[in-house]
Design goal:
The chain is built from nine helices and 14 strands. The protein is α/β, with parallel strands linked by helices. Strands 1, 6, 7, 8, 9, 10, 11, 12, 13 and 14 form a ten-stranded mixed beta sheet that branches. A two-stranded antiparallel sheet has the order 2-3. Helix 4 links the parallel strand 9 and strand 10. Helix 3 packs parallel to helix 4, helix 4 packs parallel to helix 5 and helix 6 packs parallel to helix 8. The protein is globular, with a radius of gyration of 20 Å. The relative contact order is 0.14.
């Protein structure tokens, strides 16, 4: 079980070339406003990991946030992964963003911290590019830089599968991404057979949920089907595609089970995506608590569905995604720890008093279930 790891949070004074609020806050006029829905629980963080905002907590103290550019914080996140039994992460890398030298330096530093932390804590990591087909040449060059410059694949904790480093490519074939299938297939073939040996990889495709039929969020046509079939592992995107147990069950019947049958026929593997809930009130003015978590029941229902269908690997979206309310790491349990005067989604939103680490616990249980260390079936934790 791998969690997506954004690693994109920046703060003024964090030592990065960005040196400003990134993915936490934005300015509307002269007023700072939140672009996140969930507030991280930083109660155990050291002072040199925290950066002051203009917001106040209910006790009158200054509300503070962390930076992904702080080595100690990335190490702390990986300590949590080890503590709760989470296997590792897919480190997100936005190929358009790293064309800016400031953000490239930021991302490279974070990548180094992730590599170091995974080695220290015995976790695994792999790169996941967020991209479109039109960015094929940029991906090739960036991957060369990561392999030759940062030497990520030389790490004994870089995830390998079928004797090759794992690389995820997210975004090919989506209707809102554009691009052409020939360019996408050229990229996949480069990683599979045309590149020098040291750059070749086992490819995981973060593909549209309609990949198999070429419908819905997927571009249609035989040329895109050829692209999807060129991956070693298919991982269709599901966040927001269903909203409760009933629609998740329909998804199991209409998508996961037929997907598994098709990937087996094609001789490729399958990694479904599960998520705890969804909310982007502050980011996009959506409804608050748009897809309720229900104390983890919604998440675990998806895990149970995927494993009952025969899935042997799972991607959880995401470890630290507070922007869209899918974060699994520690977030504040109630309003007493959240800033005043702004709308945030706390863990008690669905009427259950939960500890801040509740979803880390569930992530660990997912790993245990996949390893067959616990039986399938009932919710694995004692609910408050």
């Amino acid at each position: 079980m791998l969690m997506g790891y954004q690693g994109w949070f920046g703060c003024p004074g964090d030592g990065s070339q960005v040196n400003g609020w990134h993915h936490w806050l934005r300015k509307r006029g002269n007023v700072e406003s939140l672009s996140i829905d969930m507030w991280p629980d930083t109660s155990g963080f050291d002072d040199d990991e925290l950066y002051p905002t203009s917001f106040k907590l209910p006790d009158g103290s200054t509300a503070k946030l962390f930076s992904s550019h702080n080595r100690k914080t990335v190490q702390r996140h990986f300590q949590w992964m080890k503590q709760y039994g989470i296997d590792g992460v897919l480190l997100q890398r936005f190929i358009g963003e790293v064309q800016d030298p400031r953000f490239r330096a930021f991302r490279n530093d974070v990548t180094g911290y992730v590599k170091e932390s995974a080695e220290q804590q015995g976790r695994v990591f792999a790169i996941e590019y967020d991209m479109s087909a039109a960015q094929a040449d940029l991906v090739m060059q960036d991957w060369k830089d990561l392999v030759d410059g940062l030497k990520i694949t030389a790490s004994d904790r870089y995830l390998r599968h079928k004797d090759k480093p794992v690389l995820c490519l997210w975004g090919l074939g989506f209707t809102d991404r554009g691009g052409n299938a020939a360019d996408a297939l050229r990229l996949l073939n480069w990683f599979r057979k045309d590149a020098p040996e040291r750059y070749r990889a086992t490819l995981v495709g973060g593909v549209p949920s309609g990949w198999r039929e070429g419908i819905g969020d997927s571009l249609p046509g035989a040329e895109w089907a050829e692209v999807y079939h060129a991956f070693d592992v298919i991982s269709p995107w599901t966040v927001g595609r269903y909203v409760d147990d009933a629609s998740a069950d329909r998804w199991l019947k209409d998508k996961i089970i037929p997907d598994l049958t098709e990937t087996k026929r094609l001789g490729i593997e399958y990694m479904p995506v599960v998520f705890p809930g969804f909310s982007w009130r502050n980011l996009h003015q959506g409804p608050p608590n748009q897809i309720p978590r229900r104390g983890g029941v919604f998440y675990w229902h998806q895990v149970a569905n995927a494993t009952s269908a025969g899935a042997v690997m799972i991607k959880t979206a995401m470890f630290d995604e507070v922007d869209e309310g899918t974060a699994m790491f520690k977030t504040v349990p109630n309003k007493s720890a959240a800033p005043v005067g702004v709308e945030t989604l706390t863990l008690d939103a669905d009427g259950k008093a939960l500890p801040s680490d509740w979803y880390l616990r569930l992530g660990g249980e997912t790993s245990r279930l996949l390893r067959k260390e616990i039986p399938a079936g009932k919710f694995p934790l004692e609910r408050p």
